[in-house]
# Entry
Amino acid sequence: MTGPLDGLPYGGAMAGKEQDAPAEIAADPSRDLTWLAFRAADALAAAFNQAARDAGLADLRDWLVLALIGDGTERTQFEIATHLGIDKSTLVPLLDRLEKAGLLVRTASERDRRVRIPRPTQPGREVVEAVAVARDHAIDERLAAIPPAERAAFHATLFSIVRPAAP
# Structure
């Protein structure tokens, strides 16, 4: 009896079968789950970066920052950097650029007046919305081969890979 994972290098391992040799995978990288995941992420990131650039942003990180600071939660720059996995030394110039473009302002924290909290301006909120619509369109184009009924399961599967393991 054969299954949907037969013939794939990770499929055999999951079923307790012998795995392909690395040379066999190197000859056909499309059989390597890591390569496929990287290429899929790269394709989606390229589409998303283009949507961000079309809206006047530098890239995906600009949108991620604007979307995060617009969710109503007061966050310090350190908290933003930690939440998004962006080095603080990268985040500060990004915030400077967005502030100069009029997409955010930095105000004193209600918790600690010495701390500055980035907050989106109305134009910043409008850019977040426009890029979100363009992002959704780009994702729909990239995922066109996946039937709509299977996309939620695909999303949940990806999330199960990236979320932290339960203790």
In short: DSSP finds eight helices and two strands in the chain. The first helix runs from residue 9 to 14. The CA atoms of residues 9 and 35 lie 12 Å apart.
